[in-house]
Amino acid sequence: MIIRAVDSGPRTIAQLSALTGASPISIRRDLAELAEQGAIRRMRGGAAPMPSRGSEYPFALRQAASAPTKVALARAAADLIRAGDSVLIDNGTTALAVADRVAGRGITALALSLHAAAALARQPGNQVIVPGGVVDHDDLAFTGAGAADAVRAMRFDIAIIGACAADPDTGLTVAGWGDAQVKRAALDASRRVVLVATPDKFTRTAAHRFGGIADLDTIVTTSDAPPALIQDARAGGVALIFAEPGGAPA
After folding, report:
1. In the chain, which residues have pLDDT < 70?
2. CA 56 to each of CA 35, 59, 141, 209, 237: distance values in angstroms, whole numbers, following the listed order
3. Which pLDDT belongs to residue 53?
């Protein structure tokens, strides 16, 4: 709640306390932690957004956010993957949750982050490939030109894709230019593209566009996704799978 509030402009400790119901002492402690992680910028008496538009929050912070929902989404997405499939697993925390679910599944997988590669190789059974090249700090993602070339050199039965943002009007966007190039290559190299995303992603935009809703075959999200997204997906023939924590996918 603090991050979202500060994203739209500076907020005082008093304002954040009223918004969250937490004490000013708790707010100060949270602001110190968020500033250390690079999610907000501290200012006298409050906090302000980070100056660079479209920058990612730290990986650990993103991984902890909406964790039960990501587990439910990962379970539904993993059910689409069969033994013997050639699979691309994107970088990002939601794709990592899918990688955890398909460890030992008996697939050939290209992992676009070292986090995902480690999860996929945790149990015997999968052939795990990484594209090589420079590894990004914090999220350990491969987003360089070599990664895009490696993606283009393969053909995938299914690609598990994430996005920083997926506003229906703007399309699928991410914070980094290199990441957008790799994801665009993944769309071209995959027989079936599955976007796995929490519903808040469909109300955001980021700096670099790599595709649109119509470029997807399936979206795995929750039933409270924005109506505009549901309408556009159905109009474009994109399958929707709704997964809720503790429930069966629909």
Report:
1. 38, 51-57
2. 13, 8, 12, 15, 31
3. 42
Residue 70 confidence (pLDDT) = 94
Distance CA 39, CA 55 (A): 9
Give the other-Cβ count within 10 Å of 142's Cβ: 27
Q: Are 139 and 174 in contact (CB under 8 A)?
A: no
Tell me, what's the pLDDT at 54? 46
Per DSSP, 82 falls in state -
**Distance (Å, rounded) from C-alpha 12 to C-alpha 202?**
28
Token pair 């957004």 in the structure block, residue:
49
Q: What share of the chain is helix, strand, coil (3-state, %, to 5)?
A: 40, 20, 40
pLDDT reported for residue 7: 80
- Say how far apart CA 221 and CA 240 lie, in whole Å: 8
Say which DSSP state 202 is in.
G
CA 109, CA 49: separation in Å to the nearest integer?
37
Sheet of 108-111, strand order: 127-129, 108-111, 86-89, 158-161, 193-196, 218-221, 239-242
- Sheet (strand 41-43) strand order: 11-12, 46-48, 41-43
